[in-house]
What does this fold into?
Amino acid sequence: MALGTIYGFNDVTKQLGDGSYTLASDTLSFYFITETASAINLDASNPVLTDFTQVASGGNYTGSFAGASVTWTRSTITSTYDAADLSLLKDASNPTTVKSLIAVDTTASNKVFCAWDMTTDNGVTAPDLVNNDFTFTVNANGIFRVSKV
It folds into this structure.
């Protein structure tokens, strides 16, 4: 696993189909958590925010990032869910225990639909948010895509 690698929860595709998510209008938030990406059970049924250990707020981190410029678009046979990049200015009081970042649909009962590894060494070393500004660049292809087969 490497910094920025995305992991999707297997239950999400079912929940997209049964209407658990209404991504075009629901509110998206991102949370730092202390679990390593490799420790996250991607086969969990109905994963929610309380299933994870949130990193405490501190410094410039207020406990979550609001998903900005969230879009759900379609081009030919592919639909793309996307959001703006995230940033956090360095601060001596910023958290030091970040291992992963999760995307949460806060309108849909805080359902978690994907996670990213925030370490460069398989979950060992947290990113240095004290001495370095943090920018998380959402993949150019969006958070996720759905294509017709």
